[in-house]
Sequence to fold (146 residues):
Amino acid sequence: MTTDAGLYQELILEHDRERHGHGLRDGAAGESHQRNPVCGDEVLLRLHVEGDRVADVSWQGSGCAISMASASVLHDVVVGLSLDELGERIELFRDAMRSKGRQEIDEELFGDAIALSGVSKFPARVKCALLSWMAAEHALDTARGL
Fold:
């Protein structure tokens, strides 16, 4: 029998191996480079917009499996959302990651990102999981001209 922890660990490793949205594409409305100085993880993320919707997220980066899987999951979660929904989703994810395990990630809203739920119990790893989401937030602000 596979435990939730085992299943979640496998989802993280799968997203690390098969990185959704990986590879930068031209035509982005917003872009952000983020680096975690503590561990060296980094990501360059481009937000592609059509109208008021996220048409695509393209990115490249290097770092731990949690950091890279989180960027892959972010791609899957946010493509197709309105820009306002993207901002809301980023806020919800950040709150869950900073909850120290007290707040569950809504699987219906976040899909495979539920695999990152356990990370919130390890403060040193929260920054890894949040890196691409903070890049998306900054890219969203850039796309909106803020």
Observations:
- The chain has one domain: 4-143.
- Residues 67 and 129 are 5 Å apart (CA to CA).
- The beta strands are 30-35, 42-50, 53-62.
